[in-house]
Amino acid sequence: MIITAPFAEHLYTVLFISFLLLIGLLYIPERFRRFRFLNFLLSIALIGAGQAYNKHFRKAFVLSGAWLGALLLLYYDVIGDGNMNFNTGDSNIAAWIFLPAWGFAIIDGLWFTETETKRTKRLLKLRRKERALAKEIREKQLLVNIRTAHQNDQAIGLDTNILMHEEDVIVNELVKGRIFMSWVVLNELDGLKKSHNKDRRRRAQQAFDRIETFQTQSEFRIVSPPEDHYIRKQNLNAYDNDDKIVATYLKMQQEGEKISVFANDKNVRIKCRQLQVPVIEAENVQAEADAS
What we know:
Blueprint: E1 2-4, H1 7-25, H2 36-45, H3 49-53, H4 57-81, E2 83-85, H5 89-112, H6 116-151, E3 155-158, H7 160-165, H8 168-174, E4 178-182, H9 183-192, H10 198-217, E5 219-223, H11 228-233, H12 241-254, E6 259-262, H13 266-274, E7 279-280
Parallel strand pairs: 3-4, 3-6, 4-5, 6-7
Antiparallel strand pairs: 1-2
């Protein structure tokens, strides 16, 4: 079969447009890199474009090189006699290079296009790994800080969310030292165990189990909150449970007790720091959740 065409005249134009297309694919926003149909069209238009779309640049370079080689073979065949002759040796070689590379480029591009579902699964998997790592780092830092408090003969004042949400490994370390808990915490837990939320009821019951463990296995005491006038004097709200918990431990400190407050609630931690009450926390590590 012989195709007569001004092929050689347009080779540089084709190569220039192809180069611009490949360069343009580098700058496609991520949200547009998840469409298989678009990848299919690009792969048909230019071998290697689908791989560039998927950010597989090594594959794109190899396939584009094969495509360029096939074009050059055809180019030299054409300038020899002015025809594109697929019965000659060079054109046969070009066809054997071009057609398999084209077919592979289309299939590979479609297969590796990251669809929305695949991208979501990948991001969720990555996020789970990040959370697991952050949780492990946080636990190690908390254990170090709790042990330091024990070594310095510091008591630890607990907030409600610690009893409900902390891991057993943290609770088991708390048992080894002195523990204080405001009556406000006990009253909060009593209300939470009657919650309509099943998980909240379960966690409240777990908190009561942990309190009993503290009572039997450690130096543990439940402390009454101070009078309302004392709470207001500290610029705290006498009707807010968080403020009453903070005031409980603040008064203990002012009475000479060495105490650090252990809370996941940011509001409690911020107020404790403002009032110069030490806080046990995992520095520079984001907890999985801030329980209120």
